[in-house]
Structure formats: C-alpha cells, structure tokens
Amino acid sequence: HPWVCRTAACSACPLSKVCAPGRTHAASGNLSWHRGLPGSWSCRKEWPPKNMYIIFSMQRSGSTTACNVINTLPNSICAFELLAAPPGSSQAIIDRYREDPESVLRESFYEQLRNYPKAPCAWGFKVFPEHVTSEAVKRLWGMARKVVILERRNISAQVQSLQRAHATGCWVGAGEDPSRCPHVQSHVSAADIYRHAQASHLWYSRQRDEANAHSAGTGSLLHVTTEDFLAMNHSQWRSLLGAFLLFCRPCWEQGRGGHSHVQAVWRRPMPPLPAPA
Fold first, then answer.
1. What pLDDT is recorded for position 211?
2. Domain 8-174+182-267 has CATH 3.30.460.10
3. Domain ranges of the chain
4. CA 103, chain centre distance (Å)
5. What is the pTM of this model?
C-alpha cells in the first residue's frame, strides 16, 4: 500500500547497520561522486530498474541536497536531472527529452552503469516542470515504484534564490558555503512572486492529481516540504530517505496504514496564491 513517513520516530529509523560510510558530493553527470559505494549494489542490471523512484520538485527547493544524501546510502543512486536536455541541444533533442522520457531514461541507465556488473536496487532522478510535458508526467508516474514530492512553500525566498543563481551562475545548495558565490542584490517584485506561485501551484496540483490517481497502486509516496526537509540534520535526512528507498522495517511497519496516509498529506490545501500586482 502507499505510505508516507512523516513522524519523528520514523525519521529516526536507524540505518547504521546497513549504511556504508559516505558523505555528500557535488552533483555531476557521472558516477565519480559514488566512489566506494558500487560494492553495495546487488540488483540485476536490467530495465526497468527493480526499484525506480522519481523526485518531483522545482529549482531552488533542496532537490540537489536530497540527491546528495541519497548518494551516501548503500545500494542507491540519485542521478540528478536526467531529463534536462544537454546545453546546446537541438530542438529535436529537447523535444525528445520532454516528450519521450522512457527512451532517454533507458539509455541513461545503461550508459551510467556500463562499467559496473550490478545495479543499485534504488535508482532514480529528479524532475522539474521545464523538463517534461504534462503527458510525460503521467507516464513517469506510471513507471515509478516510489515518488518523492519535494515542495518549497516559501515562494518569495525561492524566487530570490533563483534570481541570484541566474545572475551569478552559481547554484550552491543547502549546506554549502554561500560565500563561494558573488553577492548580488535581488529585486523581487510582487508580479515575479505571483507568476512563480502560479507555476508552482500548477505543478504541485498536477502531482497531487497523479498521486490520487495512483493511490490504489503498489507504489509509495513521500511528500515533504523543503522547509521541513532542511530543518533536519544530515543523519535525519539519511534516515528519512533511506527508510523510504530501502524499506527500513521499523518505518515500513509504522507507515503501513494504507493510502489514508497519502491522502492525509494531499488533503492539506495548496498554499493560497498571492494577489497579482
């Protein structure tokens, strides 16, 4: 049954018995950040992966931090933004990424793991609204065994962070030293916030609809806000994500209440849109 891990006891689920030592690494397009952990991989290298998960989020929501934490876990990979077309791609390639994610993901899976005899049992990536079409979102939900919804509620701070990152080209994540980036003054207008709030509302409403449509399936759903996620310390992040991806038994037992847990999350009203300027 779908389940969601949202309690303090669940987030404290001990993973020390199964977790290899690790640390967070910067995002990259290869597996160098996963050095030392492939020895824990134990699943067959075949498509689709045994336990594919997808993180649906938006830029400046802590998704890279979430991926970095996952990449310290055994038997797990977060391959970051696999459905972002490479810079300089032709329109045909961009359209393929947006409209045909299945073929792109299959190619990426085998290319990433071609030098490894085994595959991680939890393999996944993150998706932003600009990566895929609405129809592709539906197909991705049908492919995933697990889904993480990572949603930032502070829209104003998100827009400010986006503006600074675009202005400087510096995309530091949570826990990284912000002084590495040049300081720029952001000028966020009410219209900027309203436009972004509309886009956020549309994106997460769509995920809520898909969650409801798939609530009777065999997959699992974890919905967490960026604010709650980043309020945890690193060990809590690992426990929460590790329990969800690797089926840590205490959390599984605690969250077995069925899809009512999922519905309780999505019954919360979406944050109100600010008034247009």
1. 86
2. no
3. 8-174+182-267
4. 20
5. 0.76
